[in-house]
Design goal:
alpha+beta, Thrombin, subunit H, Pdz3 Domain, six-stranded antiparallel β-barrel, six-stranded antiparallel beta barrel, 25 strands, elongated
């Protein structure tokens, strides 16, 4: 039989061990995250301004970084479309060749492969003869990160880097007018110059590509920083990148309806304003209330567009649930392409 002093000692020891559990957990996780972050850092490059737009300032590097990119293997560099565009004849066009800088200051040339303007994605390729051992590669995650998951980004905020920023995934289903797909809202520090950089999970896999920030602080002229960043989801990017590498055009599904927001009692709903193409052929009528697609509830036009982008392809048949004269109906539609 244990004495009171023995029991007290055991209880005290248990309390100490319990208090140490978070530290033990962190010590087991930190090396893995550290390795993932280091690998991501060595896969990240800076997108340089064209040579004729660079300014050499005494005491600083003779180059300027305008965006970030990630080496995804075999010399392919993934970045944001707006990070590689330049003005020509009154419009923005992608550069045929870009210069990138690695973390250990190797400047390399990469040739244009393709862009997807709808999702702000661009792919370039380094010449195999210029590949260096210090340039690592990142792979795409096979699963999506969830709200609250720890994530990090590597890039060149304000033209400086490579810099790492850690945070957590916020709303994974948000929308901006600057892009056609849904975006991942991320709670981490990001600045002008982070655009095009990878968003990584704790295993160092790409779960997104940094697209934009909401300005919270102006630092240098047009350069801004924020803790409110947005990224294009990695699984969408992965599909598009493969099409670009294969030299095939990526076609989005087209339903062919315009939607108006209307109030039904206390609830705001989506009503068909106009039906064209596939929707018209399927029999949609003005005033039909759109409720769901393939049994997925639809509350906003952005949700409908997002479902079409991520879960369908041209020629696929989908079922749209509508309410017509207060009677629910299922309408089957063969999607077109856009």
């Amino acid at each position: 039989m244990r004495t009171i002093s023995q029991r007290s000692a055991i209880i005290a020891l248990a309390i100490i061990l319990i208090s140490l559990l978070p530290t033990i957990a962190r010590s087991s996780e930190t090396p893995l995250l550290s390795v993932a972050a280091e690998r991501a850092k060595h896969a990240t490059v800076g997108i340089l301004n064209p040579i004729n737009e660079r300014a050499t300032i005494s005491g600083t590097a003779p180059f300027s970084v305008r965006g970030s990119g990630t080496h995804i293997g075999d010399g392919y560099i993934l970045t944001a479309r707006h990070a590689i565009e330049h003005q020509a004849e009154g419009k923005k066009i992608p550069q045929e060749t870009i210069q990138v800088i690695t973390g250990d200051l190797h400047e390399l040339s990469a040739a244009f492969i393709g862009i997807n303007a709808f999702l702000d994605i661009a792919v370039y390729r380094l010449q195999k003869t210029t590949l260096i051992d210090s340039l690592d590669q990142a792979t795409f995650s096979q699963t999506e990160s969830l709200s609250g998951d720890e994530v990090f980004t590597v890039g060149y905020p304000l033209g400086w880097g490579p810099a790492l920023s850690f945070g957590r995934m916020g709303n994974t289903n948000t929308f901006l007018a600057t892009i056609q797909s849904r975006l991942l809202q991320v709670d981490l520090s990001a600045c002008s110059g982070n655009s095009g950089g990878g968003l990584f999970n704790t295993r160092g896999e790409i779960v997104g590509v940094i697209h934009a920030i909401i300005q919270t602080e102006t630092t240098q002229g047009e350069r801004r920083c924020s803790r409110f960043a947005f990224a294009v989801p990695g699984l969408i990017v992965k599909n598009i990148v493969q099409f670009l590498i294969d030299g095939k055009p990526f076609k989005f599904s087209k339903l062919g309806i315009t939607l108006n927001v209307t109030k039904q009692g206390t609830h705001w709903a989506l009503a068909v304003g106009k039906a064209t193409g596939p929707a018209r052929q399927a029999g949609f009528k003005k005033g039909d209330l759109v409720l769901a697609i393939d049994d997925h509830p639809i509350n906003t036009a952005a949700q409908l567009k997002n479902y079409l982008i991520e879960h369908t392809h041209p020629g696929q048949q989908v079922t749209i649930t509508i309410l017509r004269k207060k009677i629910p109906r299922n309408v089957k539609v063969i999607l077109g392409e856009s």
